[in-house]
């Protein structure tokens, strides 16, 4: 929708026309926390066609924020207390004003960082980014060459990503890598580390491929919950090797929770040394390229639409929009399924919302959990996901899956069938659980 067309009415500030009927949103009790990290989808234009792309990037939105608007938004981020702004896409360097925005972020005493696929990141651009104020760039590399190129949808993606690392390092930036973990990439991760280490990366983030966007159309690439045990065996070896190489391996919020590796995994990403609940809308803020705000940069849909920055401004939306405040003061009453009875429930609160919501329609029941997988394994059980509904084909959309608890032993599975089936539930915004297209058989 164009920003000058009919708008969603948010009764939070006096910027909307006084004749419009408005829903009154009360202030949250007490002072709202200050956002510390903003992840900004600077553009939806992209030069790759990734199989796991959440926003289904490719074409530029017709109503992307202008340069003037972007610079004003930077000022508001600084005023709100944000310390780091991570620019993503699509592909952020496809905006001609990228260096202006980076420089403004730096001038406002915030740290600008960049996450990129690096397909067309030249040495000239690398020099410009460092001169403008970029201090760290993370290049997305998912597996070895054939795997990475297939997932990224472009030939030579792998070698161009490594070239981007070299360009940024030569320009004087710190360099890091981020990698998706899915059924295709898991066998490649250990060999990939041996190629990344000589490039001089200081950190490596690993994260599960989420069941949203294009990945929702390809459930075959997603890991099953029972594969968490196999994945963690790989992570344990990676941790040991990264420690020897002096590379910080840290997990995205999608990787967890409370298994035997928890303290070693989290010591690089949290002061507490363990996962402590979804921080979307608590310290984290997501911004889409046309100015929509949300708590989590990896989620979309009505339940995560915190409102339009053009219409209301950052401060008012952050303080009052319930979609941004969802995790503030949230308790165990929002949990369901096995998460509701888990020992770690009051701390974990069902893990990463961007994992559970695209799988089962709402947060609070997260099967992609090593503690849960190990507990079930000890009882002779496992969990797997089965597609129910396909995604409708929109940015950050998702299908729906049912969660089947069953015996590990194939003979028992065949004879006794499922032990428990958790059907998907409607979303936080009371959207119908069956939204989307019926899955083709």
Structural account:
This protein has 441 residues and is an alpha/beta fold. It folds into 2 domains: 37-320, Aldolase class I (TIM Barrel, Alpha-Beta Barrel), CATH 3.20.20.70; 332-438, no CATH class. 29% of the residues lie in helices and 15% in strands. The protein contains 14 helices and 13 strands. It has a 9-stranded mixed β-sheet, covered by helices on one side. Strands 12-11-10-13 form a 4-stranded antiparallel β-sheet, with helices on both faces. Helix 3 (123-132) links the parallel strand 3 and strand 4 (136-140). The longest helix has 18 residues, at 228-245. It is globular and about 65 Å long. The model is unreliable at 1-29 and 430-441 (pLDDT under 50).
Overall tally of domains: 2
Residue fraction in strands: 15-25%
- From the alpha carbons, calculate the radius of gyration and give it in angstroms: 21 Å
Sheet bearing the most strands, described? 9 strands, mixed
N-to-C span: 34 Å
Q: Please tally the β strands and state the result.
A: 13
CATH homolog superfamily of the largest domain? Aldolase class I
- Structural class, from helix and strand content? alpha/beta
By oligomeric state, this entry counts as single chain
Gross morphology: globular
Strand order in the sheet with the most strands: 7-6-5-4-3-2-1-8-9
The appropriate CATH architecture of the largest domain is Alpha-Beta Barrel
Percent in helix? 25-40%
**Given this structure, which CATH class of the largest domain is correct?**
Alpha Beta
- Helix and strand pattern: EHEHEHEHHEHEHEHEEHHHHHEEHEE
